[in-house]
Design brief:
mainly alpha; Ferritin
């Protein structure tokens, strides 16, 4: 199988990289909002995986387009409560899953597909883990 030219435009990959950077800051803040050891471990693991994806996408951008991407600095997110943050994290992860699935299924380039299949699989698992935390939070209020 020969490798095809990527279809992903530089601007879309920049958006993915920026979103990753924003998620890293968001999850860093979110994990500081709970004292539950299990929740901290889950969020810390997700945070680490987001950092790994960030570096993967930075390297992919440099490989595809021959230059390092110019990533804007992230403003710290407003998380009003831990429950709100966890609920929002589910949406963030599912939105990323949808975007990455679309890129994976439409781009013929093997490097692009490999980077995005790993990320979309992780995003789906992250959404499930945040759903678990959210369910625990709801059950504790019953």
């Amino acid at each position: 199988m020969t490798n095809s030219q990527p279809h992903i435009p530089p601007g879309m990959l920049m958006r993915v990289i920026q979103d990753k950077q924003d998620k890293i800051a968001y999850y860093e803040q979110l994990h500081k909002m709970t004292s539950d050891r299990q929740d901290i471990d889950i969020i810390s693991t997700i945070h680490k995986e987001e950092i790994d994806h960030y570096h993967t996408f930075i390297n992919l951008y440099a490989h595809l387009f021959g230059e390092q991407p110019s990533v804007l600095s992230t403003t710290l997110p407003q998380i009003y409560s831990f429950v709100y943050g966890v609920k929002n994290s589910i949406r963030i992860e599912l939105d990323a899953y949808d975007l990455y699935s679309n890129i994976f299924f439409t781009d013929p380039n093997i490097e692009v597909r490999n980077a995005f299949v790993r990320a979309l699989t992780d995003e789906n698992r992250h959404a499930a883990k945040y759903t678990y935390i959210f369910t625990k939070l709801l059950e504790s209020r019953l």
